[in-house]
Each structure stands twice: as structure tokens, then as C-alpha cells.
Amino acid sequence: MGIFIGILEEGLIYAILALGVLITYRILDFPDLTVDSSFPLGAAVSAILTVNGMHPVLTLLMATLAGAAAGLVTGLIHVKCRVRDLLSGIITMTGLYSINLRIAGRANLPFFNMDTLFDNALVDSLPAALAPWSKVLVVLVIVLVVKVLLDLFMNTKAGFLLRAEGDNPAVVATLARDGGLVKIEGLIIANALVALSGAVMAQKNRVFEISMGTGAIVFGLAAVIIGEVIFSRIFRDFALKLLSAVIGAIIYYIVMVFVLRLG
Questions:
Q1: Residues 6 or more apart from 213 whose CB is under 8 A from it?
Q2: Please, are residues 32 and 187 in contact by the beta-carbon 8 Å criterion?
Q3: Under a CB-based contact definition with an 8 Å cutoff, are residues 96 and 38 in contact?
Q4: Which residues have CB under 8 Å from 124's CB, separation 6+?
């Protein structure tokens, strides 16, 4: 049971990252490597603000804004400086390594003695029967909020333009819209979600590690692909496609744990 609970905790946290990756890779067709550094960026911001006494929920909001700024930089480098998509992400990813170190002040920043998102008076007041599931419930609430907000956004005019930019940029041009700005908007949203995922992970582990984003893009892509392969014929509505990325992240983490336990 403990292993199952742990899988759900980690899988749901990475599901937020998978939603961000889905926006760049599947909707925008943009190979954004910023993810490998925007994930620890969110963790660094959340960790340092928690150490300085800010409420854990507020640190998540600040981490999300930091991730949005990272996505904005990648978008501006690509659109305004006319740098290729892959290279623009690499530039931002490389620069963020130093920025993450500067924000946290060190490569490893623990905060074991502070209240976190998963260890506070509200969580401690849960009934004894729910205590083992407390972390899962907290992450599940965050994932549901993110999923609902994304569903609402994707059904707005801006959301439809975002999806059109990835499918057929010519359509966006015929609507007298700047496709570059639409790309920047998508990168902002995607990296905001990735940074949020990193912040939640830092809150769960009570530590920031400079290397915690290594392989994040691989995890996100794997989750998106697994979700699409398994549910593509069932989930045809776009909102369900977003859900498939969430389920794909959990399945991928199950596979990882199973393989590790096999040695």
C-alpha cells in the first residue's frame, strides 16, 4: 500500500509537468528543452521562499510566475531573435542553471523544519483514516485545479488560437493574428505548469536539488506518448486528451518503480 501511495504522489506531481510538455510538443509542435531547468526553477523559488517564511501556497504561485518568465524568455529568443526552436530552449535551459543556483544560494537547499504544503496544521487535522493519503489528496486537488483551468482556457478564443497555431499556422495568419505571440503565450503557460510541478515536488521532498530537473523532459514526453497510445481511440475530446497525459504520467511512474524493484 505504501508503494502504491508513493506512486500516486509522484505520478500526479509529474502529471502537471506532462500537461506543460503536452502544450509545447503536441499543441505547438515546439521541442522546448527549457523544461529541464524550469522544473528546478520552480523548486528553487518555492524552497527559498519557504525558508524565508512565506506560506507554502504562495510559494507555488511565485514559482508558477517564475516558470512563466522562463517560458517568456524562450519565446522571445525564438520569435524576436529568430533563433531556432530547439536552440532557443537550450539557451534558456543553460542560463537557468546559474539562475537557479543564485536563487537558492546553493546546489542543495533543505527545509525540513518548515511548514510545507504537505505538513501543516490543516493537513494534520485530517481524520486518521485519511492520514496516509494526505499527500495524494493535496496533489490531486492541485492537479484538478490545473486541469479545470486548462480546460476552460482551451475553450476560449485564445485557447483555440493556440491549438490552431500548432495544427495550421496559416489559419492564425488569416485571422490577422501574430503566430509568434501565440507561440510565446503557449511557452509561458507550459513552463508555468512545469515550474509548478517542480515547486510541488520540492514541497513534498522538503529539499531543492539543482539536478532535480535532469530528465524531466523525457518523463513528460513519455507520459504524453503513453497516454496518447493507450487512449487515443477512446479520448477524442481535447479535454480528455489532457486527461490522458495525466494518466500516462501515473502509468509511466508505475513502470519505473516496477523496473527498479526488479533490479
A1: 35, 36, 37, 38, 39, 40, 41, 43, 198
A2: yes
A3: yes
A4: none
- Cβ distance 57 to 118 under 8 Å? no
Determine the residue type at 131. Answer: A
Q: How far is CA 94 from CA 33, 52, 89, 176, in A?
A: 10, 27, 9, 35
Which residue, among 10, 213, 192, has the nearest Cα to 96 in the 3D structure?
213
Low-confidence ranges of the chain (pLDDT < 70): 176
Q: The C-alpha cell of 75 is what?
A: 519565446
Count of residues in the chain: 263
Residue found under cell 509522484: 10
Q: How far apart are CA 163 and CA 199, in angstroms?
A: 27
Angle at 143 between CA 242 and CA 92, to 5 degrees: 75
Tens of pLDDT, residues 115-162? 899 988 777 777 877 888 889 999 999 999 999 999 999 999 889 889
Task: Name the E strands within the chain.
Answer: 108-110, 207-209
